[in-house]
Design goal:
Layout lengths: L17 H10 L1 E4 L5 H18 L10 E5 L6 H7 L2 H11 L3 E11 L7 E4 L7 E2 L5 E6 L10 E3 L19 H5 L9 E3 L6 E5 L4 E3 L8 E10 L3 E2 L29
Antiparallel strand pairs: 1-9, 2-3, 3-11, 4-10, 5-12, 6-9, 6-11, 7-8, 7-10
């Protein structure tokens, strides 16, 4: 699929270039242009808007910064196609360099004129994962996301900064309190056109700017984990109701690998 406005970084074989793989592994994030074509963008944007209208009250986010709905692939056939998209999974594995499974998806909608940032944080400290190599997330823009609509800013090279506690997404100082050296890391802001995608490691520090526009920032995120990941026993909304025991592999139908 190709974004006719901006071109695509995805080859006919469904893979990205060696240069993009090298950039991801060096910096901990990369932009991949034109992952979705115009028809796919419209289909998934419409599906997101419909699901959000019906389920906004179920959002895990309660402070009005954004709406966050998790594992929508289990409840909506249109969004299931996006979450389990084989090409996205293959690109993720190409970047990571090892087999992956889906950890979960999430719909992240930054509401119009929310005017609040999602502050710098890492993703991985929130997850009950053990024995895993670097996970990564595919952050798919379903509308144009310039800086004023809430695109992301990354801290390059921080993907190996592990061992930190979970950070408060609403506290601009919290990541830097956990590791003061990160305050001086370079910051790279990455605007996206609809259909573009960023991939970032679970340890790469990142934040999202406020949405100052009258248009909702619609993003769909697929989070991929090492296929060998085991459950630590810690609480998490994705695993709390699955009856897992610490040490269990996170695999099977709840954590699929349809691109294998």
């Amino acid at each position: 699929m190709m974004n006719s406005q901006a071109g695509t970084d995805v080859g006919a074989d469904g893979r990205v270039s060696r240069e993009l793989v090298a950039s991801y592994r060096e910096h901990g994030f990369v932009r991949v242009r034109g992952v979705l074509d115009a028809a796919a963008i419209e289909r998934f944007k419409s599906g997101t808007e419909s699901f959000l209208e019906a389920h906004r009250a179920e959002s895990l986010e309660t402070l009005g910064v954004f709406s966050q709905l998790v594992n929508v692939w289990r409840r909506d056939p249109v969004l299931r196609d996006l979450t389990l998209d084989r090409r996205l999974g293959r690109i993720a594995e190409h970047l990571a360099g090892f087999p992956l499974r889906l950890w979960h998806d999430q719909m992240l909608v930054k509401e119009p004129h929310s005017n609040a940032a999602t502050e710098f944080h890492q993703d991985r400290p929130y997850w009950p994962h053990g024995g895993d190599r670097l996970p990564l997330s595919a952050w798919i823009a379903l509308v144009d996301v310039p800086p004023e609509r809430g695109c992301m800013t990354f801290l390059p090279g921080t993907q190996h900064q592990d061992g930190l506690r979970p950070q408060d997404l609403h506290d601009a100082e919290d990541l830097f309190a956990a590791d003061p050296s990160l305050r001086w890391a370079p910051r790279v802001t990455v605007p996206l056109r609809a259909g573009d995608c960023t991939f970032h490691s679970g340890y790469t520090g990142h934040m999202a700017l406020p949405n100052q526009t009258g248009t909702a920032r619609l993003a769909h995120v697929n989070i991929y984990m090492d296929a060998e990941t085991v459950y630590t026993g810690d609480a998490h909304p994705v695993t709390d109701d699955l009856g897992l025991t610490a040490g269990d592999r996170l695999d099977g139908e709840n954590f699929p690998r349809p691109w294998a």
